[in-house]
């Protein structure tokens, strides 16, 4: 499994890549493997401020539906339009073309409290 060192991770299997006062969020390689074939991503929080650990959407796989949790306090700016037409991108490229949302961070320093790649690997026993 792949866990890019430049990203931060949550215990709920989301990753976040900070880009100034904005960030891109998706689910980890581990999460997409556990879920199986992803068939739909539902995000209805665009324009809303979502608190850390609150649900910002769901991802639907063939076998299950899983909530998506916001890693830090942030306002949802946009959803990756590519995953509307091709939700399987979350499976095939979870850290690239399969990103899920772009957000405006309420406090960029909050990201420092999240897990490093090594910390996340320990969390999932990888």
From TrEMBL:
GO biological process per UniProt: glycine decarboxylation via glycine cleavage system; protein lipoylation
Keywords carried by this UniProt record: Lipoyl
InterPro entries hit by this protein: Biotin_lipoyl, GCV_H, GCV_H/Fam206, GCV_H_sub, Single_hybrid_motif
A Pfam family it matches: GCV_H
GO cellular component, one term: glycine cleavage complex
Cofactor: (R)-lipoate
Residues bearing PTM N6-lipoyllysine: 63
Cofactor note: Binds 1 lipoyl cofactor covalently.
Ranges that cross the membrane: none
Domain Lipoyl-binding: from-to ranges: 22-104
Function: The glycine cleavage system catalyzes the degradation of glycine. The H protein shuttles the methylamine group of glycine from the P protein to the T protein.
Membership in a protein family: Belongs to the GcvH family.
Quaternary assembly: The glycine cleavage system is composed of four proteins: P, T, L and H.
Name of the molecule in the record: Glycine cleavage system H protein
């Amino acid at each position: 499994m792949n866990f890019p060192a430049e990203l931060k991770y949550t215990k709920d299997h989301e990753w976040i890549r900070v880009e100034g006062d904005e960030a891109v969020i998706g689910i980890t390689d581990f999460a997409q493997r556990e879920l199986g074939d992803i068939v739909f991503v539902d995000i209805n929080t665009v324009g809303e401020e979502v608190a850390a650990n609150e649900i910002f959407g769901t991802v639907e796989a063939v076998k299950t539906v899983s909530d998506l949790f916001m890693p830090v306090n942030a306002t949802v700016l946009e959803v990756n339009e590519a995953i509307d037409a091709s939700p399987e991108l979350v499976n095939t490229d979870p850290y690239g073309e399969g990103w899920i949302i772009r957000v405006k961070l309420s406090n960029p320093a909050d990201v420092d409290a999240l897990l490093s790649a090594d910390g996340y690997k320990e969390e999932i026993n990888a």
